[in-house]
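Retro notes, item 3 of 5
We never archived the inputs for the flavin-adenine dinucleotide complex last cycle. Fixing that now. Sequence and ligand:
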Amino acid sequence: MIESKFMNRRTFIQYSAKSAGALLLPGLLVTACHGNDLCESENWQGKVVVIGAGAAGMYAAQLLYKAGAQVTVLEASGQYGGRIRPLTGFSDFDIELGAEEVHGNKTRWYNMVQDAGLDFTNTETTDLLALDAQLLTEDAAANDPDVTAALQFAENLYNYSGPDISVAQYIANQGIPARVHHLLNAFIGNEYGSDNTRLGAKSTAEADDLWSAGNDNYALKNGTLLSALEYHCPDILDKIVLNQPVQAISYTDNSVTVTTETGNTYLADKAIITIPLAILKTGAVTFTPALPDAKTQAFANIGMDAGMKIILRFTNRFWPEDTGSVYGNGYIPEFWSTGFGRSNQNNVLTAFICGPNAQYLSSPGQNAIQTALAELDALFGQGIASGAFDVGFVMDWFKQPYIGGAYSYPSPNSETHRQQLALPVANTLFFAGEATHTQGHQGTVHGAIETAQRAVNELLCSVKG
Ligand SMILES: Cc1cc2nc3c(=O)[nH]c(=O)nc-3n(C[C@H](O)[C@H](O)[C@H](O)COP(=O)(O)OP(=O)(O)OC[C@H]3O[C@@H](n4cnc5c(N)ncnc54)[C@H](O)[C@@H]3O)c2cc1C
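Structure as it came back at the time:
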């Protein structure tokens, strides 16, 4: 595995890891709902409506189908995959607009991706970091005492157990010099889907403590994550009904009626709800009877912020060939070299921004591509990036009407609420999706997959005689 000084335990940093020799551990993680029962293989022929066709919804539907259930998947948008979405035709390789890396090798998702015939890249990379007015390699930056202090802080954060102040406040309390705050924001806040002013120090430590996926990250050498999802959900692709935004859910102890904005009504015995947290927060979907207060408090208390990727294609590569990430000090915490390790010719950088900065770049009057180019020019030399710019694409997840942001994050005092978010209601409504992961894998695809397993297991246990 490739190790780096700038890699914390749960980094989203673009590191390509060697797949050869990777430990293949069994990925099964099913939370039992009744004692130690595992109900995933139960046979049950009831009717289930799954709401949302992202990773969690599609995988839940596939597991239910295999168990014998009659499944319908209602998807609000015109495509399935949710926050797994490839951009094809932009460059000579497919680009991931949402989830891009497989985090860890101890999950079912890691095995699923390989089983689908996809390979991981096998390349070593070097990161570049903006410090004062310079762009330093990771080795050069590691000699700077403030960078060392920042890295130590990131390392120690995961032991923090004090009051749930923001990570930014904790950084200030520790006296970490301001000249490296942008690096800590890139390593921690941005990776977790927001920024350091909004992450709770204790909640982040709690979530990270539960992380069991493994610490290495894997980038695809070929294909797309959507193709892996399709490969593993073959029986339910024709059960997905697109353009069906669910508006109202009314339920009893043994039935559920789901009504869509288009006026369609679906009756079922059970529902699995995988709607992203940012949408649940808005109250756009009504529940009758109303959900328990603890559940709606969980919607409110767990954070989910804006998130954006800016994909930039250049006529020539102005960054060193082995570049992994470039940590800037403007609105964009991190760029990475996209497609490195694939057999491609195009020169592509991805900018990844979450939290208030993403919201700012999403606001009227802002031009995210121009901002990205100006920040790259400031890092690499005046006119270097803008002069080589060819074409750009902005994926603004905040503006996606049925997603509403990047992914859930450990906001102050949030983590205890995830249990409530995940709890079934009336043995009729079951909740899945990344934000309902209670074991630290929120904000990831493997986490979404694991919640699908958990929710299906709960559902099948609930009908067990
Ligand atoms: C920019 C970005 C980068 C990321 N990078 C990574 C990464 O590198 N690795 C990783 O593991 N994870 C990453 N993630 C996170 C990962 O993509 C998500 O955690 C995961 O895909 C979420 O799956 P889900 O099924 O819970 O939700 P979604 O994929 O959001 O699926 C929910 C579905 O519900 C639908 N829906 C919403 N409202 C309604 C309604 N009213 N009626 C019917 N349907 C509805 C939505 O349209 C959507 O299709 C990233 C995410 C983003 C945005």
